[in-house]
Amino acid sequence: MSREQGVGRKISKCNILPYPDLNIQCLPTRGAHSDLKSYFIGNLSKFKLKIFDAAHRPIPLFPFFIFCFLSAAFLHAGGVKDKQAALDKAQADEWAAIGEPRVMAFPAVLTPGEACAVIYVHPQGKMPEGLDGRAALYNEAGKKIAEAALFPYPLDEAGHGAQAAILSPPSTCTPGKATIRITSMTKRPSQNEGKAESASGTASGTIIIAERKFAAENIPLNPSNTSLRTESDPKKTAESARLWAILSTTGTAIYSTGPFLTPVPADTRRSSFFGDRRVYQYSNGKSDTAVHAGIDYAVPKGTPVHAPADGKVALACPRIVTGNSIILEHLPGVYSMYYHLETINVQEGDSVRTGDIIGLSGSTGLSTGPHLHWEIRAATENTDPDAFTAHPILNRELIMEKLFAISISSDLK
Ligand SMILES: [Zn+2]
Fold it and tell me: Mind listing the pLDDT tens digit for each residue in 240-254?
């Protein structure tokens, strides 16, 4: 169908710059329609597009569009290449300008029990070899309140990077200003291992620990739960030693930088909160205090428990106090834990992906009813899981922004 055949009526015409000898026309494919508006509403599918050259010869559509696409792709690729080269050059200059070690914390304002990522960038973004560093947090009185080993964290494909540590001030710490100190220690010969550290350089930064209120909780325990908690048992001691050995291990694998999901739907009712100040009322009339290390979700027995992030199974076995238990490793020194499960669906050493069902909830071990206890540890300290679901614990984009001050960013992001 064409204008020449007298079926359609020319209803639009335009020039495509920079090719002024081409015209585009939209032609109704059948019927005569005087009302353009109603035609578009009722019969849009019956339109077809034809393109004519200056001599009114129709131009085949398919090769025309291929030509347009290739031209656009060529022009775009040229622009992208130039832009990328300029960006690469600017970034290389910025890395070269880093002359002093930099210490940054994300977030730099937090509350007791909330983890932060400490980032240590060496001059020029080079990670020196043979150095083994640690990051520590000191309160205003000069007391060390948290410490973690640094691990390598690549920041770009050109080989620049930082060292990172995930630290959490304890939920019981006093609010106020805290100092981060980075100590780079030359790796010592093996015969000196465990002796005095030889510091080859230090750097520091600060964070602000804001006020936070925690709930109080009274938990009466029946005789069997009382004895689970109070009676000494060599098996319990061995289980604690193994757990502590796992949590104290800082590997190098970065399985997930977050944000994490919750292991059960996020709106599930919580029967206990992170940092609850607990008083256990024993059946013998005595009592003891403890701080709740995680979140308890009030889920019925048999509820699927999902991996909140990619990771590796570090422990999957029954334990006396925590019942059927799973520990996942997500980042160097960062572990998530699942207690009182009915069943365990994974094995130690397994890799898990976000959302995988790792077990079913239950009420095994020291438990007063079916629930899921979810806990996260950072460098052995129990830390608020909500901070891990709220934002990524390691955010490369934010680190680069702050490092090069490309734009004003908030530490609270
Ligand atoms: Zn719990």
Answer: 999 999 999 999 899
